[in-house]
User: Fold this.
Amino acid sequence: MKLRLIALAAPIAMLAACSGGNGDAEDGDDMNAASEGALNENLATDPDLANSSEEGAALSGTGNQNIPRIDTSERAIEDARSRAVQMVGGSANMDALPTAKRLGEGAADTPAMVQAARALQGPGNTNCFEKVSYSASWSAKLPAEFPIYPRGNTIEAAGSDEGNCAVRAVTFRTGVPKSDVLAFYATRAADAGYTVEHALKGGENVLSAIDGQSAMVIYARDLPGKVTEIDLVTSKR
Assistant:
């Protein structure tokens, strides 16, 4: 179950080749075919990582080598929410999740989604996803403004600092509803000066945040057992 970064690499490389425009709506329509895969490929998990050493145990909150059981008790959920509120400076500072733009089947990606996909590549059309390595330690190297949600269980992580790349990709799970998790990241992004957009496409919530050449993209979905799964991808420059 591997983060499908290789699948992401091709469409992002296509975006790099086409990114001479100004990123307006017309560009978004032209590049929809290229960006769709980059923004809608699910990230899964890697059995090689799951069966590796215990180096990720502290990061995932578990000591066994299998995918951890997610604590969905009210106590755990409220504790996680409380920590998240503290991290944004109090409940008054937690922004409401922006209303999702519902994109129909075959609809063009929004210009913001296209711009975020472009930002996930490196300068000079570098395909950073071809350079990633897999290690649970990458989840501790996320940009400071986008940490793993409190009490989130890391399933796997990948990243690269090679050359001009500074990409991170982490999959984690939590018992906290995805609306709360997405509101936390939307708030963190806005507080850090990012422009935030929320879309619903292909049955997944997609939260895009852009600040110049830096970007954060989240793919969120519901799993059985009241578990939320989050794929968090960042590029910080």
